[in-house]
Amino acid sequence: xxxxxxxxxxxxxxxxxxxxxxxxxxxxxxxxxxxxxxxxxxxxxxxxxxxxxxxxxxxxxxxxxxxxxxxxxxxxxxxxxxxxxxxxxxxxxxxxxxxxxxxxxxxxxxxxxxxxxxxxxxxxxxxxxxxxxxxxxxxxxxxxxxxxxxxxxxxxxxxxxx
Length: 162
Hints:
By secondary structure, the chain is of the alpha+beta class. Helix content is 23%, strand content 34%. The longest helix is centred in the middle third of the chain and has 18 residues.
């Protein structure tokens, strides 16, 4: 396909879905997420709000397995969440969520996600999203510096430039 807009002089040769498929190569972490009966709406597909729950399940697994976040010392709040819906998730689909830390600042970091349907060895992208996470000091309830141990684990796992 060839796309061109009025404000672009160059044509785009890829559509959005093609561009999204290439992104899954850049994720180092994936976790399977079970679909529950309660996730479905009257149309027979997973309700749009549940996708954020799938992100939450995936990031919690990521923090537990990769980062080993010390919740007794420092909390995390979500300051911003966004999602692009691409394909619906329906009954009998098997899904997984890719998660990666894509940016690390002093008190905040970004996580990116892709929800994929598992079709044998193939993955079909259903959605992509992002959250901005803020490290929070429990005592003051205010943003705090990301703990160095957790920060280093994210940098090392994702091979980010610090």
